[in-house]
Amino acid sequence: METLNLKSVMLGVLALAVTAFAPLAAQAEDKPTLIRFAYPGAGTGGRPQADSSFIATAHLQGALEQEFKNDGIKVQWTFFPGAGPSVNESFANGLVDFAFHGDLPLIVGRSTGLKHKIIFGASRFGNLYFVVPADSTAKTLADLKGKRIATFKGTAGQLQLGRVFEKYGFTEKDFKVVNLDTDTTKASLATKDIDGAIISPFDLQSRGVAKILFEIPRDPKVTSVGSVWVSEEFEKKYPSSVQKVVNAFVRAAAWTSDEKNRDTNFKLWAQSGNISYIDFQKTWNGYTMKERNTPLLDDYYRFTLQKAVDESRRFKLIRRDVSLDGWIEPKYLQTALKEQHLENYWDEYDANGNIKKK
Amino acid sequence: MQSSKQWLGAGLLALAGAAHAAQPSNEELQQQIQALQKAVDALKQQLQERSPTLSSASTETIAIPPAEIATKSDVEGLRTDLENYKYDQQRNRETKTALATRGTTIGGTIQTRATAQSPSVTTGSSTPANGRSSSFDIPLASIFFSGSLYRDYAEGRNLDYRIQLGYAPQSPAANNSNFNLQDAYLRYSPLPTKTGLEDPKLTITFGQQLLPFGLEVQTGEDLRPTIKSAQFLTTTGLVNRQIGAIVQGDLEPYVDYGFNYRAPLFQYAFGVVNGSGPNKSDDNNAKDWIARVAFTLPVDYYSLFRELKIGGTYYKGAKNVLNGTTIVDSGGKGDRYGIDLYYNHSPFGATYEYVQGRDDTYNAVTKKIDTITSRSHTATLFYTWGEQWLASSKSQAKFDDWWPKSYQLFTRWDQWDPNKDAANDKITISTLGFNVFFAETTKFQLNLNHYAYENPTIKSANELLAQFQFGF
User: Fold this and answer.
1) Range list of H helices, chain A
2) ipTM value
């Protein structure tokens, strides 16, 4: 037997190390240790909770945590009272992998260079209530010309307000548009420091501090779509984890869309304190859970997002154009729908917000 | 009730009428009953099949309490609880709550420090003293009150105030300390502050306040990376608060709505002050003037050049030139010039500040007034791990007292030349530092300072400082 020399031993150890760590390295490529999901909002008093969509239900039910439990991957939910712009700031600093976003911050972020892929839709349709202080003498929006209207600037609410102004032949310049978050808007309606806002009205009405000036019941041209995206970097590195995230959310969307869970969802969402249980009952009246909780990236989704891009440009909220080409990645959603046999569970909607005939 | 009875009666009549009209045979009736029985059985089976699914789906996530109707006693119980709560609130407010005439914010900052140095020193201790190479100190303790004297809920044209009292060691050192008035001012915002980021800002401040000079003077203890401030602050007197009126504002802000990022293209400040320092009347009949402008690059938040700012400040000072205790000239020059560059793109950043002082001094030899020009260069580089400076992270919704733990490494080069015409008088302090931000208002700082003296007769010195700074 030849005596082992030092070089041979070293080579042997190196070979062993390579063999031992090679599978780990391969595994590490496709498996993150942490999945960071950002949500543009929070409950009253800084509660880390969401509401109003299957994203909130998924959080409250621990859908993602369940999905990744066996992989040993941690899930981190972050709730930003600073809404969509805060999600963008966090993402720009490399702290977010997935996020839910309303249209305006999503579009502005994209226009300034944030790199993400939209992987499914979340939340659409709904009633819109323009609320004024209880003793307001205004009868129409025209009566509020030159008055103070509140919106949370930089969020989807600002774009929605722009659409409402445009619908009635006004622009933002016809009013004094002030920047307030939801809690402050409610307080300011009570103290009459603002003259109007788009907000859920019923808890304010029951307190006797505000009333509805007008309601836009169902207008798919005024309401917008929510989106969930993944960072391009994460998608490139961990496509199978992206698929699992989408799987979990699609499962949650289906559960939320089931009418038998309607009341349970409202109770879950009301935990955030932003919108009361009664408000959910009233504002969702006339809508199926399915139509408002569809994750589909259908014609209505694409048309509405493109419209929002055009409006953002027209209202001078973005300085550069945004193209939908290469931005929407539907393959994960399609796979999840197929695997869960949900291909025909949700109706597809056309550009006008009507169910597409099959 | 009457109405429902009527409907019930009408329904029964209709059923009776329908039965009478059809007149089915007994067999047909039997068949109908059997069909109905089958339908009921089928429905029962469906319900049994669905119930486990329903309950498993629900119990996996949350337990839904059965529907209950509140009784009169329940409502009365709730009302009692509410009344008790109202009483407790009122009682606590009257007996256990600090009340203020106006809505007030109370805060403060304290520093506790340990120092090791070589060679040993005697400064800051009572005399006579032996040289020391280490010491524990409380270099700072301050408390402030601030709030609105008039709050404009509609547009935010508020009239605010601030008063700050700060501890300072006595000089010469004694067992006691001074507790001096530092800030004492009114501040009015003539422009709306609630309309949004795209609108310009403007404030008018009257009273005792910091000067809007450059970067270091205006940087609070909570933001400054170093434990000790740049040399020029004390040597030029710019560290002193002044009494007067100063207008500050900005124009043409560049707003990136996607990030709520605001970069005012043009910032300005101008004002008039005594120039004699804090808590004193003016010491001559000439006022000091200050003017500052700064430009920030109008780029998006995501740009590499965000928060790139260049500024310049001019302070026109009038001082009493003394020959001993005699005033030779009450309008002597005490001017300050400054240029500053600021760049902060998390995680890294850099600042540079050049300050020049021109001071008239009586020359006892020539019996003339000379103008001495002093100069200062201060450059700082820093890198931060963590989310300390991200507004979104700091405002995250959390149930607990969470704060983004952050670590900052920095280096500073600070040179002071008290007289550009004199040789061998420059002092250069090089600092290597590490800051740990581990709670919202608390940080731990470690600084290693090296003092290099151009004067060959003075030995260079080293100093290691470890400090907790905490606020409330």
Assistant:
1) 6-29, 54-61, 63-68, 83-92, 103-111, 156-167, 182-190, 202-207, 232-237, 239-257, 262-270, 277-283, 289-292, 299-314, 331-339
2) 0.78
